[in-house]
Amino acid sequence: MTHWTLGIIGGSGLYEFEGLMDRRWVKVDSPWGEPSDELLFGVVEETRLVFLPRHGRGHRLPPSAINSRANIDALKRAGCTDILSVSAVGSLQEELAPGMFATVGQYVDRTENRARSFFDAGFVAHVSMADPVCPRLSSYAKDAARQVGLRLIESVTYLAMEGPQFSTRAESRLYRSWACDVIGMTAMPEARLAREAELPYANLCMITDYDCWREDSAEVDVASILAVMRANVGGAQRLIVELAKRLRNPRAPSPIDSCLDSVVISDPSVWDPSLLSKLDAICGRRLKKAREPTS
Fold this sequence. Notes:
The chain is an alpha/beta fold and 295 residues long. The chain contains seven helices and nine strands; from the N terminus they run E-E-E-E-H-E-E-H-E-H-E-H-E-H-H-H. A five-stranded mixed barrel has the order 5-8-7-6-9.
């Protein structure tokens, strides 16, 4: 059994709240490049929190420039046991109105130019993404949202687009025909990489606008999105505090904690030492198990 250490990936406003104790910014190096920013360590009651500003403080990184491999690796090195991703999204459904929140159940990944895996030639592995989010952490986030009075819809389908431009109307209507519920630019490949790192991952969405599929709506614009985001930040902060209070120690194991046990295809005789050295945090548990003598 271990203690909860909750990694939180999101905007800079999320960690600017009362109740986060023992704050300290720490630079965490990664062999996968530069994370988006330093990590902010803190404590809420008995739960350790580690915040990572996804776009960097001041929002200096566009979605396609976010180094998700370095971000997930840094959070793993920081001792995180689970990750809550908080992201702003557009709505593809009438009932999902701006100002509401949602937890994600599924993804459709339409990103194009992003590194999607830690594994490569010399260490090939295929993790299952059939159920891409952690049901336990998602349930805790749902309960926390309702406790603090947020309007929340469970288990939506998130369309991840490359960006940085918003959708055309034709694209937006196409995604609706695919039964997608919300659209954003940041959750992929983040969710894929968290699974490869054996980190249970949940995604809380702040709905900021209706995407441009509506006949009677103006095009999506940054000013209106930012206005709704600012209004939503306080709710997200309250949710994080309530969620942290619900994560009672000790933390029971999750099946995701050991999901790499049966997914490595490459024979140990062809494992690439240089790649393995970069994977020391991501799959250190799996590599240690492989090196243990068999009885």
